[in-house]
Design a protein that fits this description.
mainly alpha; Growth Hormone, Chain: A; 2 strands
Length: 448
């Protein structure tokens, strides 16, 4: 069945689902250190800070190269760049098995991080296949590839226990390489790239106007995304180690519980977009932050023993969050983080309809860098304070800051403009902005 511009439904479906599967595989590789890093830590005798740097290094690479890869996707076609990204990351992951020292591990981790940049390429590729009225759903499905973090937590522990971390890296590398080859041969160039090839027309530059980046509001959106996406990635990397340290569970069990957090934080992202359309992105962010404050207020409480001087003598009792209660709380936290991710990038075209690419690129990069900075901070706090739950103390301060800044900014804006609590209507839809080839790659920064 043909659609607009001669695009077939079959071609759209193939591009979407192969891109989603490819991104899922890339995300699984991107977060592989959350599992293999535990064994590497023991082998090299790393402290918590060094471990945090190791698991966060791939996140740094994936964040910084996102916009660059998006530009290349516009210039040379998303299909070609997506396949090259997967093959390059696969080679780096395989070479990781030859690293023996900590500096060598960090260098290899930089290469593994290339997989994280695939999101920018995928958004540019997928968006070109769909008309504006269908891009939201298509990109929501593609973005659910974040579930790759849960795939790693489900499967990698069993391979690691049976064969060692080197085998995990090799299997993940081979899988990614095969996915890259399948993607190249099973997909075709996107419609816009084909039109350019015929007409010889050069694409518009992806480096859009940077004037809005002077606005403090843009950086406030970046702080929101630093929490809802950056903290999601950081916890996806940190939780297995945390569970083993605090609860003494096996690495396989830690992976399963970690997946209970990663799954809702990934697959409900599209639902967050639906809620933002229905109730408003600002309201969804309020929900996200209020629930996150509650969760991160409870989780930092360490196991504690109390002795009260009663009338008939001392009364002793203890408080501790059990592993079942912990799993339930992080599930709720992950669910609301997924809603928040969608709400943040829903805001961007409302306030900056003509600068979606520049603003979205910066916000997305800030969020991605959160996934690099926070694991290091978690390790430093653990070494400094000596309390395992200190990572949640930091997240509590972060989300309280974001909520407070948002609330007072909204109140200030409403007093200045004399408006109600309703959000401004977008001048152009998000989908229409993404449909523009010059915007598609840069918008990816705000989605990933």
């Amino acid at each position: 069945m043909a659609t607009v511009s001669g695009i077939t439904t079959r071609g759209q479906t193939r591009a979407l689902w192969l891109s989603t599967l490819s991104f899922t595989t890339c995300f699984a590789v991107w977060t592989v250190f959350s599992i293999i890093g535990i064994q590497i830590k023991d082998k090299l005798g790393l402290n918590e800070t060094q471990f945090g740097l190791l698991v966060g290094t791939p996140i740094l690479t994936g964040s910084l190269i996102r916009i660059v890869l998006g530009v290349w996707a516009d210039q040379y076609g998303g299909r070609r760049i997506f396949a090259l990204v997967m093959l390059a990351a696969a080679v780096a992951t395989w070479l990781l098995t030859y690293a023996e020292t900590y500096p060598q591990m960090l260098l290899a981790a930089l290469g593994v991080g290339i997989a994280g940049g695939a999101f920018a390429v995928g958004v540019a590729y997928v968006s070109h296949w769909y008309p504006p009225e269908k891009q939201g759903t298509a990109l929501g499905i593609f973005g659910a590839g974040n579930v790759g973090a849960a795939v790693t937590k489900f499967l990698a522990p069993f391979v690691l226990v049976a064969y060692g971390w080197e085998t995990v890296a090799q299997v993940w590398a081979v899988t990614l390489a095969l996915m890259g080859i399948i993607f190249w041969f099973a997909t075709s160039e996107d419609p816009i790239q084909r039109e350019r090839a015929v007409s010889g027309k050069k694409p518009k530059s992806a480096w859009l106007e940077l004037t809005p980046l002077k606005n403090v509001q843009v950086w406030r959106f970046g702080l929101y995304y630093f929490f809802v996406f950056g903290a999601f990635v950081a916890l996806a990397l940190w939780l297995p180690r945390y569970l083993i340290s605090v609860y003494g569970v096996s690495i396989a069990t830690a992976g399963m519980i970690g997946a209970a957090y990663s799954v809702p934080a990934s697959i409900f992202r599209a639902y967050g977009g639906h809620l933002s359309d229905k109730y408003g992105a600002r309201r969804v962010l309020y929900w996200t932050f209020f629930v996150s404050v509650a969760c991160t207020f409870i989780l930092p409480y360490p196991p504690t023993a109390y002795v009260v001087r009663g009338i008939r003598g001392p009364i002793a009792f203890e408080f501790e969050i059990g592993v079942v209660a912990f799993t339930m709380i992080v599930f709720v936290l992950g669910f609301f983080m997924s809603l928040g991710k969608a709400a943040v990038y829903k805001h961007i075209p409302v306030y900056y309809p003509n600068n979606v690419g520049a603003v979205g690129g910066l916000v997305g990069m800030i969020g991605g860098l959160g996934g690099f900075v926070l694991p290091i901070a978690f390790g430093m706090l653990s070494d400094l304070i000596g309390v395992s739950t200190s990572c949640f103390m930091l997240l509590f301060l972060l989300v309280v800051t974001a909520l407070t800044w948002m609330h007072f900014s909204v109140r200030h804006m409403e007093r200045q403009k004399g408006v109600s609590n309703e959000e401004p209507r977008p001048l152009l839809s998000t989908a229409h902005q993404i449909q523009d080839p010059a915007n598609a790659s840069a918008v990816a920064g705000s989605l990933g």
